Amino acid sequence: MSVTSIQQAILDGAPGERIAELPLPETMRAAVVRKAEMDHFDGVATEDRDPRKTLHVDEVPIPPLGPNEVLIAPMASALNYNTVWTSIFEPLPTFGFLERLGRESDLGARHDLPYHIVGSDAAAVVLRVGAGVTRWKPGDRVTVHCNDVDMQAPQGHEDSMLDPSQRIWGFETNFGSLADISLVKANQLMPMPAHLTWEEAASLGLVLATSYRMLIGQNAARMKQGDIVLIWGATGGLGGFATQLVLNGGGIPVCVVSSQDKVDLLRRVGVEHIIDRKAEGYRFETEDGTPDYAEMRRFGKQIRDLVGQDPDIVFEHPGRTTFGASVLVCKRGGTIVTCASTSGYLHEYDNRHLWMRLKRIIGSHFANYNEAWEANRLVSLGMVHPILSKTYPLDQAGQGAFEMHQNQHAGKIGILVGAPEEGLGVIDTERRARHLEGIEAYRSFG
Ligand code: NAP
Average pLDDT, whole number, for the chain? Predict the structure, then answer.
């Protein structure tokens, strides 16, 4: 049996019992980074490191299935910035994560391989379930969130993101979603929204759940109606969903982007207050690299001119180049919530602006199962829409990662894995028709 015949059976709508009977092949296609190429970019500047050179599609063995695990066939996946980091070996090669996991247990040792199968989002069909899995069965159509956690330590039982074993699937573990068959824990699965295509459903998980926790869940900024929320990168993966969540939740987004195309896109999805950081020429440090507070104040004044007050919440992820401004412009008593540092993780800000004005900085990372589930439910209800702008086949994953690294995209870049073309996988056509405008809003950008 080949992988393609399993994928064909799925496309033909074969029942779960039939899928459970289909023998699995010994090997499969997978997008991998090779350990032997770890020093490929030594001496090359970050911006010149090209993922197309290091992300390969190789034929590799199917991973063995353990207890509480599930083998899935991703019909589609999506790119996340973590695949950019893995493929350019920054800030560190991810093989260190796999080696550490390999030292922990026999099951962990499966992950420590000379190749790393990347990818942290999928819309997939369950092929096999391991011992102890009761909630899912072969044939189930699922989306996958990327919080890989054992739940054997006490700390995780209030919030699984606090579990010491917590890892991001397909980044800190092997066997990610850019492969014909992928290995996940049973507690990563969620029902696939029935009105979406494979590639649309695959494009949601990681960034939507991260934005949900940062803004809506009980663990970070806890936005309320009427809050002004400054959103950096408002048409990117995180920012595109943050914008929808703020609009849905009765907040007022102030969206920052870097081109007229992106301004136009935000206008189409109903955003009123937009700042084009490039057109405004914002640069928050001087030529000698010291913070430029006059420029940050100019930015703060523009926000106040737009919405009449400082932001209650600042949605941060660009990091070094924006963080000082985020702290300065945030309202007295407001919250800066951060989950990343794309432009550099050593930040400089004036701490007087923080303590004298009683602001809080909250670190946030992905989401627990419940937060991911709630975010997925909003999509199933048609209250949050995909932000997919472009889709590539698996063998062009490197091209997609290159575009992401160069900030040439908007929203999400999908990857077809088992699905031979875009547009397949929809079950609820009536709901789709009702939400078509929202679902396709980002398409014009691709
Ligand atoms: P993305 O799709 O590339 O979007 C990022 C957006 O940020 C871009 O569209 C860009 O918008 C803006 N941006 C980039 N550099 C900037 C700069 N120097 N100053 C101001 N804005 C800048 O990426 P993403 O998926 O949203 O992820 C963003 C970051 O978050 C990545 O570093 C990723 O690894 C991280 N992340 C962390 C978690 C977590 O759980 N901790 C989860 C998801 C993502 P404009 O050019 O239009 O302004």
Answer: 97
In this predicted model, what pLDDT tens digit does every residue of 80-121 receive, in sequence order? Answer: 999 999 999 999 999 999 999 999 999 999 999 999 999 999
**129, 70 Cβ separation under 8 angstroms:** yes
* DSSP symbol at 440: T
In this structure, which residue's CA is closest to atom 30 in ligand 1?
Answer: 340
CA angle 117–411–234, rounded 5-degree value: 125
CATH number of 3-208+367-443: 1.10.10.10, 3.40.50.300, 3.40.50.1820, 3.90.180.10?
A: 3.90.180.10
- Tell me which residue has its CA closest to atom 4 in ligand 1: 236
Domain map (residue ranges) of the chain: 3-208+367-443, 221-363
Q: What is the spatial distance between Cα 231 and Cα 164, in angstroms, rounded to a whole number?
A: 30
Per-residue pLDDT of 193-219, as tens digits, reads 999 999 999 999 999 999 999 999 999
The answer on pLDDT for 445 being more than 90 is: no
Which 3 state secondary structure label does DSSP give 255?
Answer: strand
In this prediction the pTM is 0.97
Residues near 146 by beta carbon (within 8 Å), at least 6 away in sequence: 120, 121, 168, 169, 170, 171, 188, 205, 206, 366
Q: Is 206 in the pocket of ligand 1 (CB under 6 A)?
A: yes
Main-chain phi, psi angles of 296, to 5 degrees: -65, -40
Instruction: Establish whether domains 3-208+367-443 and 221-363 are of one fold.
Output: no
Please identify, by atom number, the ligand 1 atom nearest to the C-alpha of residue 84.
34
Q: Which residue among 81, 212, 323 has the greatest number of ligand 1 atoms within 8 angstroms of its CB, and so is best to mutate?
A: 81
Task: Answer yes or no: is pLDDT of 1 > 60.
Answer: no
Which of ligand 1's atoms lies nearest the C-alpha of 364?
41
pLDDT band at residue 34 under the 50/70/90 scheme: very high
Ligand 1 neighbour 256 (Cβ under 6 A): yes
- Cβ neighbours of 106 (radius 10 Å): 8
Q: Architecture of 221-363 per CATH? A: 3-Layer(aba) Sandwich (3.40)
Tell me which H or E stretch contains 229: strand 228-231
Kindly state the DSSP code that residue 188 receives in the 8-state scheme: G
Please identify which residue in the block is written with the tokens 């949050």: 384
Q: How far apart are CA 103 and CA 109, in angstroms?
A: 6
CB contact burial 327-342 (16+ within 10 A = b; e otherwise): bbbbbeebbbbbbbbb
Give the C-alpha separation, 63 to 59, whole Å. Answer: 12
Cα 214 to middle of ligand 1, angstroms: 14
Classify burial at 136, counting beta carbons within 10 Å of its beta carbon; exposed 0-12, middle 13-18, buried 19 or more: middle
Pocket flag, ligand 1, residue 365 (CB < 6 Å): yes
